[in-house]
Structures are given as C-alpha cells and as structure tokens.
C-alpha cells in the first residue's frame, strides 16, 4: 500500500468514527425524549430512584447525551466528547449489569434497531463501542489534556 492510500485510510478512520458516534448519540437522545412517557416509568421501576429523581433523570440523561453529541462536532471539543461517550457507554454497561442481577423482567424504552436486541446483545454493543472509543482515543487523539 502506498503512502497516499495509507494517509487517506487513516484520515477516513479519524473522521468517520466520531461522526458515527455523533449520529448515534443524537439518535439515542431523540429516542429517549420522544419516548419520555415510557422512559420515565422504566427508570422509576428499575432503579432505586424517587419519582422526582426518575423525572430528573428522564430529562437530564437525553439532554446530557445531546451535550456529548455537541462536543463531538468540532475538533476543538471532540476529545471531551469522546471521553464523555466512553463514560456514558461504560455507565450504560453498569446499568445493564445492575438490571440483569437485580430484576427478573427487564424494561426497555429503546427505540429503532436496538429495540430488536436482547439485553446481552445491548451490553455487548455498548461494551464494543466503549472499547472502540478507548482505542480511538489512544490511537488518534493528542496525548495531552488540551485538544489541538
């Protein structure tokens, strides 16, 4: 493979992955906001939250996801967006584990294609995205704290 093709592939990977995560985060946030009537009771019935805590979480989780999407848009804030996405993916994995071991019936206010995935498949998908994001951060992002 010549140097030009290698550089084009590298640039494509460097740009495509954050765009994929951007679309995914917007999709997730819109789904949760549009299914608020289902998402709120799922949170309330699944986690040790008060009604007001579940109401706050049902709004702040999708709005926080939109903030992550916003951070992924520009290269100046992309590293913060990737780290936030990684943290959110790992948090989602932990919430799935909590539900697996704490409940017999698992609610799902997922939408779109994820609605067709089992909980183990959702866990594997989220963990895979977290690992891919960690690899991306290691390979493509500057090592210092501030973005260049």
Describe this structure in words.
With about 150 residues, this protein is mainly α. It contains five helices and no strands.
Supply the key terms.
single chain; 148 residues; mainly alpha
Number of strands: 0
Helix content: over 70%
Low-confidence stretches: none
**Percent of residues in β-strands:** under 5%
Question: Element order, helices and strands?
Answer: HHHHH
Structural class: mainly alpha
Distance between the termini: 29 Å
Largest sheet: none
Q: How many DSSP H or I helices?
A: 5
Shape by Cα distribution:
elongated
What is the typical, i.e. mean, pLDDT? 85
Rg, Cα atoms, Å: 17 Å
How do you describe this structure in short?
It contains 5 helices and no strands. It has helices at residues 3-34, 36-46, 51-73, 78-102, 119-140. Helix 1 packs antiparallel against helix 3, helix 3 (51-73) packs antiparallel against helix 4 (78-102) and helix 4 (78-102) runs antiparallel to helix 5.
């Amino acid at each position: 493979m010549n140097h030009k093709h290698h550089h084009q592939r590298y640039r494509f990977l460097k740009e495509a992955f954050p765009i994929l995560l951007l679309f995914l985060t917007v999709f997730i946030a819109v789904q949760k906001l549009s299914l608020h009537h289902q998402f709120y009771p799922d949170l309330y019935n699944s986690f040790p939250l008060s009604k007001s805590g579940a109401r706050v979480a049902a709004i702040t989780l999708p709005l926080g996801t939109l903030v992550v999407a916003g951070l992924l848009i520009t290269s100046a804030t992309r590293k913060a967006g990737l780290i936030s996405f990684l943290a959110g993916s790992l948090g989602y994995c932990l919430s799935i584990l909590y539900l697996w071991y704490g409940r017999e019936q698992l609610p799902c206010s997922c939408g779109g294609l994820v609605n067709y995935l089992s909980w183990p498949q959702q866990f594997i998908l989220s963990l895979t995205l977290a690992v891919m994001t960690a690899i991306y951060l290691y390979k493509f992002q500057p090592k210092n704290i501030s973005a260049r």
